[in-house]
């Protein structure tokens, strides 16, 4: 990869800094397009070039980037993004420059990111997804519903919502389409709760700073010189329901969709796919969220679910890969749920990028230092990925593979299907502000005494990232979904890893305003 030029649109969070640092050590020339300067200290010295430009408007970005690259005497070998808000834009720009978009062509990415359309894609291909979606159209008189519980407009809204939901059974989930993370996603148990949260979402659509990124996803796909992909050709033929959903998205920018709430275990599948072939795949468990919202609290890698549950999740993921075909090429973060009552896996969403926050650290810890960022770069540059993955996972040194993970990997198809045994279990925690106010103290358990005989000695803090600084105004979910920090530890068993992350969580200290508290176990 030495000497290759990679252009990244937006930095994503500070948790990406180690990924960029590794790619720079691989000899890549890193060019950043980001709307603000200076960058946070975590990114200092990582990029060779920085174009300060907005990434939402492709028509403005294309000439600005072309001029910048020309003036810098750079010829890009890849144009990509690790940021949810710029993956689609990067694909459009890459196509314009004659480069391969990752991990899908622009039209397929647009369909994936517009959640209502993605559900239709899954249904056409018989991929198991929550029942729905129902699109709640935004009535022109919605502002008249100032307060739930009274007024003709409120009763009118309740009737409209009930009619739209039809026979969709409660509980249901409301989410924005497009959307990112758990922003504005909420479980609702009644028609009144659905209507009230829809009003909240419509109000947020007017002024939330992230809405411009969502609206960018409704921009037309730039025409390229290459022939259309199967997904693009299918859409060009005219899919009535897809066209209807796309028209609504273009009209309103962001939609409120409602779908069935699936109970059970939430998991992530982080995968490397090369020309439609799975090269690496890891299933991780998510710790329970705090209803009715879905702010992530941490997790365990690899999964501790029974092999039968993991086989169901594997089959769902492989069905998705086959549905996309050879045009699928890159690193994915696939989110699903497994319902033990129905004994079935359900696809929730697919993030067409590396998993964010602690994901990279978790996978490196569990899988012998495997760098998903390097896999991503190799895909972008057209370099083979399988030899790199096989080499890293075969070079274990003195560390033995965990027997239980080896048995599950074999049951899932082994390395031929991208499943490898892990060397350690990694556990993480995501920590949020305890209340709204000014952050006056934040202390990680990096220097406090951590020797515990029942934990096998010193509790390792193998990775962490702090997203807030003393003096920042912070507030907890659902008003904001931003973390104070995340932490990762490891262990030789599920119990050891989970017990260690619980211990580290108990010794995390935050102070908002005048009140100080240790984290305790409320968030795990």
TrEMBL record:
Read off the InterPro entries from this record.
Answer: ATP-dep_AA_Ligase (IPR052032), ATP-grasp (IPR011761)
Start and end of every ATP-grasp domain?
119-381
Tell me the domain of life.
Eukaryota
- An example of a Pfam family matching this protein is ATP-grasp_4
Q: Which Gene3D superfamilies match?
A: ATP-grasp fold, B domain (3.30.470.20)
Per UniProt, what is one GO molecular function of this protein?
A: ligase activity
Q: Does the keyword Ligase apply?
A: yes
**Which parts of the chain span the membrane according to its record?**
none
**Which keywords does the record carry?**
ATP-binding, Ligase, Nucleotide-binding
Protein name in UniProt: Biotin carboxylase
Organism in which the protein naturally occurs:
Strigomonas culicis
